[in-house]
Amino acid sequence: MASEALQLARLVAWQERRVMTDAVDLGDELEAFVAQAVRSGRYLSRAAVVRDAVRLLRDHETGWSAFEHEILTRIDAAAPADAERASDRLHRRYAEMADRRPL
User: Fold this and answer.
1) What is the pTM of this model?
2) Half-sphere exposure of 74 (CA within 13 A, CB side)
3) pLDDT (tens digit, 9 = 90+) per residue, 68-94?
4) Is the backbone of residue 72 left (phi > 0), alpha (psi -120 to 50) or beta?
């Protein structure tokens, strides 16, 4: 009896996941890409392609967030005098470029 309930719960969960991936409108170009990925045998189903794509997006976003955090940490750690010197150099360089620009 418990085994039947577990099987039923698994079936319901599977159907809910299937409905979610079937409800995603990818447009013609991405639909064709997904269909080709399944036809080629690389993926067993449309849902597997969508899961992999979402996983890749999550990993990309996580990596980008870590990169952004590292940049902000380094900016915060920079001494104000360093930033001021860099700003002065940029202003001088822009002034030199403006002086050389033909009118």
Assistant:
1) 0.49
2) 6
3) 888 888 877 776 777 788 888 888 888
4) alpha
Angle between helices 46-77 and 27-39 (to 10 degrees): 110
Three-state DSSP at 26 gives coil
Place of tokens 């639909």: 31
- CA nearest 51: which of 28, 79, 20, 6? 20
Structural Rg of the chain based on CA atoms: 27
**Taking Cα atoms as reference points, which of 24, 26, 6 lies closest to residue 14?**
6
Q: Where are the alpha helices (DSSP H) in the chain?
A: 2-22, 27-39, 46-77, 80-100
Q: How many angstroms separate the CA atoms of 46 and 42, rounded?
A: 11
